[in-house]
Amino acid sequence: MKREAEFSRILEQVKSTARQQGNRIEQEQVIEAFAELELSGEQMQMVYDYLLQSKIGIGQHLDVEDYLTEKEQDYLQNYLDEIEIFGDVSEGEREAITISAMAGDADAQNRLVEIYLKEVPQIAKLYAGQGVFLEDLIGEGNVALTIGAGMVGSMEKPEEAQGMLGKMIMDAMERMIQETADAKKTDRHMEDKVNRVAEKARELREELRRKVTVKELSEESGLTEKAIRDAIRLSGRKIEDIEDTDNP
Containing domain of residue 194, as a range? Predict the structure, then answer.
């Protein structure tokens, strides 16, 4: 378990490094990161495949625009058009505003949010094609940005504050992707449970030539009555081959 936990930790660190490098990482960086685990060639190839599936280029940049749907491209353009009113600032102006925001100036903090609104979609594009619509990623990033602007006072230097904002935006998007993946996994698990119970009920009904009770299905299939009743509930009570005595 300790080795698996270390593998997961290193993999997340490699992904984080790649995001910071614009969704690109060198093969040598990956090899160095996993050196202590002494992975086999097959295991390393699995790592490379996983990174590519996560839209991370190995030794080359991937064109993230290719992973945007037409709907996402339209949304992105509309978003960028809307925030044009905030204008651009020079690096010097950005630093001065950041320093004022760090000192607790509310107007500077608001201005800092406006400046970084253009950064959010650029970060969001790094996570394109991973199961979450671009609009949702940008929305989550903007929330993290707003919260972060009020926390920059904890940093000592402007560049640290700017780095913190970028990290908070990325972390928020990564959490959303993970939560979405977990929810889909749960949905698939629920669907599999319902399908299994429905299939067993159908087989038993064909044998008995009538609807079956929960108790009969449990005795014949080895499924617990609780599992069967859970499946009935999850299906919206639409497993037709079971006599649902709980819902006459």
Answer: 184-234
Measured CA to CA, the distance from residue 209 to residue 212 in angstroms comes to 9
Domain count, the chain: 3
Helix (H) or strand (E) holding 57: strand 57-58
Q: Running along the chain, 248 residues long, what does each successive block of 10 average in pLDDT? A: 79 82 82 84 84 78 72 90 90 93 94 93 85 91 94 91 91 90 81 84 86 84 83 82 67
| Same domain (yes/no): 18, 78 | no
From the list 161, 141, 136, 163, the residue with the least C-alpha distance to 151 is 161
Residue 173 C-beta-side C-alpha neighbours within 13 Å: 30
Give the count of beta carbons closer than 10 Å to the beta carbon of residue 133.
15
**Inside any domain, residue 242:** no
* pTM for the whole structure: 0.62
d(CA 172, CA 167): 8
Percentages of the chain per state (helix, strand, coil), in multiples of 5: 75, 0, 25
For residue 68, the model assigns a pLDDT of 80
- Mark which of 22, 47, 62 sits at the end of a domain: 62
Q: Measured between alpha carbons, how far is residue 214 from residues 179, 203, 233, 239, 242 in Å? A: 34, 14, 13, 11, 7
